[in-house]
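About this split. The held-out portion is used to measure sequence recovery: a designer receives only the structure tokens and must propose an amino acid at every position. Recovery is the fraction of positions where the proposal matches the reference. Here is one held-out target exactly as it appears in the evaluation file.
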């Protein structure tokens, strides 16, 4: 069996690495649909450790782990010894002493997953750390877009909304450009500094403040939630103005009736996206959720060392 591996972010992942992971996700989903529960992680355990709220990510990791035959324990900061003041170091060491193959962690601090990875023998899978990275979200977004586009070359995606606070936008900037697509970031200047794209040198990432201009060039649009919990006020004049300038409404999308729409969830319906779009014919949002389970099966199987990536690609960094 191979070594355990961490998934902390997607910086440094090549098109071949990402494609191999998506292929593995599709393969495992087919296997699971045909054969029921798999035994790749039989006798192994996975712990999910969430310091921030989550619906999709936490449940899909749990379902994915169970589909692979693992035992799963879920822990949230609320109701645990974290509320008694236990440090991240002690929590990680305590959980690691129970011998899990993988710890899946979400934390409000950027860099927490990388720090914690250094403290445990289990593989560490980052389920979102502060503003920094949300690699499995970006992988499921890539799978959803691949189903839509077939090929990434020459394709453009507009990511609109609260870019500044978004780990989803940051991870997608790495993965989608690695795959050959172009990313156009769009939002008000307070939530999208002009220098943002400079963090992705030599990548096809650009900034556009006018949503209508951005959409003219788009092959897909991803809407982001306004992350009110990460704002300390002063970012927006009013939600009404935000909706007027950056909300995805039927009127704004009318010229592009076939444009696929993605959103990582949870949605503020009526603010960044109208219900008619979120639940309309071009919405791929439920497909993203479904793909999340498949992608997390692949990531958990790979992180635990139960499988190598198909085609022989090996992401070497992050190896335990
Ligand atoms: N669910 C995503 C995340 O955890 C997006 C969001 O919360 O807006 O980053």
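Reference sequence for scoring:
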């Amino acid at each position: 069996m191979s070594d355990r591996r961490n998934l902390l972010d997607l910086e440094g992942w090549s098109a071949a690495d990402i494609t191999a992971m998506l292929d593995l996700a599709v393969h495992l989903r087919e296997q699971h649909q045909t054969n029921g529960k798999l035994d790749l992680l039989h006798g192994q355990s996975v712990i999910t450790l969430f310091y921030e709220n989550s619906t999709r990510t936490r449940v899909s990791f749990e379902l994915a782990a169970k589909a692979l035959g693992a035992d799963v324990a879920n822990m949230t900061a609320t109701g645990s010894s974290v509320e008694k003041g236990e440090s991240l170091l002690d929590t990680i060491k305590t959980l690691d002493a129970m011998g899990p193959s993988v710890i899946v962690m979400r934390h409000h601090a950027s860099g927490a997953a990388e720090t914690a990875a250094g403290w445990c023998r289990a593989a560490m899978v980052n389920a979102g750390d502060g503003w920094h990275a949300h690699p499995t979200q970006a992988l499921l977004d890539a799978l959803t877009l691949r189903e839509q586009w077939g090929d990434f070359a020459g394709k453009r995606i507009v990511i609109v909304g609260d870019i500044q606070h978004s780990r989803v936008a940051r991870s997608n900037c790495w993965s989608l450009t690695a795959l050959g697509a172009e990313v156009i970031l769009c939002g008000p200047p307070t939530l999208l500094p002009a220098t943002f794209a400079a963090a992705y040198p030599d990548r096809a990432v650009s900034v556009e403040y006018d949503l209508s201009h951005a959409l003219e060039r788009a092959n897909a649009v991803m809407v982001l939630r306004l992350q009110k919990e990460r704002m300390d006020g002063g970012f927006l004049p009013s939600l009404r103005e935000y909706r007027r300038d950056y909300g995805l409404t039927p009127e704004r999308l009318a010229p592009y009736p076939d444009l696929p729409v993605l959103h990582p969830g949870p949605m503020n319906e009526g603010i960044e996206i109208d219900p008619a779009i979120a639940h309309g014919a071009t919405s791929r949002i439920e497909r993203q959720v479904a793909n999340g389970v498949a992608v997390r099966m692949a990531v958990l199987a790979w992180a635990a060392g139960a499988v190598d990536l198909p085609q022989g690609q090996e992401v070497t960094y992050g190896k335990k």
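Annotator remark: The mean pLDDT is 93.
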